[in-house]
Amino acid sequence: MNQRQLFLQHVAQTSPAPLALEIVKAAGSSLWDAHGKEYTDLIAGISVCNIGHCHPAVVAAIQQQANQYLHLLVYGELVETPQVAYAQYLIQHLPATLNSVYFTNSGAEAVEGAMKLAKRYTGRTQILAFNQSYHGSTQGALSIIGDEYWRNAYRPLLPDIIHADHNSFESLEWITDKTACVIAETIQAERGVFYPDRAWMQALRKKCTDTGALLILDEIQAGFGRTGSLWAFEQYGIVPDVLLLGKALGGGMPLGAFIAGRDIMWSLAYDPVLGHITTFGGHPVSCAAGLAAMKVLLEGNIIGTVKQKEQLFRDLLKHPAIKTVRTSGLLIAVEFDSFEVNKKIIDRCIENGVLTDWFLFAPRCMRIAPPLTITNEAIEKACRVIVSAIEEQ
Ligand code: PLP
Hints:
Elements: H1 3-10, E1 23-27, E2 30-33, E3 38-41, H2 44-47, H3 56-68, H4 81-92, E4 100-104, H5 107-122, E5 126-130, H6 139-144, H7 148-152, E6 161-164, E7 179-185, H8 198-211, E8 214-218, E9 242-245, E10 256-260, H9 262-265, H10 284-299, H11 306-316, E11 324-328, E12 331-335, H12 339-351, E13 354-355, E14 357-359, E15 362-368, H13 376-391
Parallel strand pairs: 3-13, 5-6, 5-7, 7-8, 8-9
Antiparallel strand pairs: 1-2, 2-3, 4-10, 9-10, 11-12, 12-15, 14-15
Helix pairs in contact: 3-10, 4-10, 11-13, 12-13
Pyridoxal-5'-phosphate binds at residues 46, 106-108, 111, 134-136, 185, 189, 218, 220-221, 246, 256.
């Protein structure tokens, strides 16, 4: 049996039609399969590899930390220095009120921790989340995601959750002194890249402040320069009470975080003590990799190139079969008539060496979220492949 057959047989599948492409090497914005065929990666592991695959600085940081130690002991007992270094660096690049980092293993765990934190800090139970937002697949995160198709099969889920429309002023009326927190994706990615109006975000911030509800912004997908600024919330002139990070946070290694003010975070430390526990969250190797990746991102002025590359995609992705192109930096949705049309184009692109995908809540939209380091030449080549795949329909 070949690797693909073994994969399908022994590794759990959650889709009836997995792509199952065997990739043996990745570097920058390229992937190579077992036959030596090169693919331009327009997905970046779903917004993970923002500085490209296997950046030498990240690989070196992983090797160095692996030579030092892997896991020691957490829960406040032993200091794992890569966590400290990364928390300090993150905080230096965040507003002053976000000064305490709780590291997790994944994005969904960051969501879970933040939901618990909001309940504990406010003494309230109600959570307001938004239709067509994605926050993860664990039961708490599933309870707040904004799509009944995915939620329904796993009911009963968490009680006391309200779903409202994103970017709707009417939705703000649901936020009251019973609301523990409002959780929003700053940019709704899986909906097919929708960004709210500045006035709405500011009104949301104000309503949370007025009612004492914590505003939790999920930037697990939108953070780390993806949308053209380090954090997407910067574009709205607001600061959340809790920020959720994941994906690119670990530079390709598993890592998530919820970040809040020290005063808020303190409520996890008593009654009960150890209010949130994780053995591996903030693993030293993941933190070392993430710190190295974030330094590359910032010191190389990579984010400064995002808007120009976004425009290049917009200029090149023109065809009558494209209904619309929605972009927020290098988070791009190319909308077609139907999932069937989109899927045929995606499959043809893969045949021709360009890896793209669709969005969970927007199957008729092609996902383009390449490493932010992708070159203009690679963008031009990839767009030529996409447009000719459309022509061939
Ligand atoms: N939040 C958002 C916006 C995401 O896009 C994702 C993952 O796609 C998550 C949360 C969950 O992260 P993870 O898959 O690491 O649990």
